[in-house]
Every structure is written in structure tokens, then in C-alpha cells.
Amino acid sequence: MRKGDPQRLITPCASCHGVGGQGGKLEAPALGGQNPVYFVRTMLHYHGGQRHNDVAKGMRFFAERLSRAEIEALAAYYADLPATRRR
Amino acid sequence: MRKGDPQRLITPCASCHGVGGQGGKLEAPALGGQNPVYFVRTMLHYHGGQRHNDVAKGMRFFAERLSRAEIEALAAYYADLPATRRR
């Protein structure tokens, strides 16, 4: 989440979605407190191409390089992270 | 948010997204604490058809019947609502 994986060119989630999962300055959504079923479904849709509103195709690039287990772990992590209003 | 608008056949947001914006039982995303820029962009994408991963085309139906001002008011409302983990 905060380190990403340079080997797989995976940028840290936090760099766009905020260290506290509160979302980015521009349109990157907040992830803190997100419904894990929605989170996994969304990532799989990016992976499969059913969803393509991601800026610069970034999310598809990452989703394709994450395993299902990693996606589910991220979903659980963010679900338990309280969403904090952007300060 | 909790009453919807029967005249315009707009279902209350809370019925799928939870009274506390915590997300639904199935895949309806949590909205509490969501980035308002992302919220508005998403609703406009549903309205314009650029985004179509909404179950049963429900969101497009609602987004088309909401004014821009109403969408922005909902974005601000939900942004300030703390995301609560589903119990």
C-alpha cells in the first residue's frame, strides 16, 4: 500500500489515494472504509477491462499485476481504514 | 439522500448505500468520506454513459434525473460523512 512493488512497476496506492486512504487531490477516490465486495469487484473489472474510467489506464496496469489474494488483502485493509475527510 | 424523490422515481441513496453511507450488503460502494471530486465525476460519467458498471443501469437512471447542483450537494454531504465499517 505504501511501498508498492518496484519489480512489478506497481506504484504505491497511497501516492494517489492518500496515505490515510482519504483520496487524492484530484479525482482519485477515497478508499478508507470502502465496501470490500465493491473494492474487489472494481479491481477485477479493471483487470478484465470491463471498467475503463481509470485515468491514464493506470488502474488496469496495476490490477493486472496484482494477484487475487493481494487484491483481497488490500480490500480488507482499506475496509478497516476509517475514511478521513481531506484536510 | 434518505427520501429520494418519488416524483422523479429516484430511490433514496441510503437504500443501497446504507443510511450511514457505509455501503450496501452486496456491491454498493461506501460513500461516506468519499472524495467529492471523484463523486461528481462518477455521477456525471453515469449521466453521460461513459461509465456503465452500475448494476441494472440504476445509477445512470438516477444521475440523469439529478441536477448538477443536487449532485454537488450529495458529494459535499457524503464527503463529510465519516465512513463507518459495516457491522
TrEMBL record, chains A, B:
One MF annotation (Gene Ontology) recorded for this entry: metal ion binding
Stretches of the chain forming a coiled coil according to its record: none
Every Cytochrome c domain range: 1-82
Record keywords, A-Z: Heme, Iron, Metal-binding
One Pfam family linked to the record: Cytochrome_CBB3
Keyword 4Fe-4S included in the entry's annotation: no
Name of the protein in its database record: Cytochrome c4
Native source species: Tepidimonas alkaliphilus
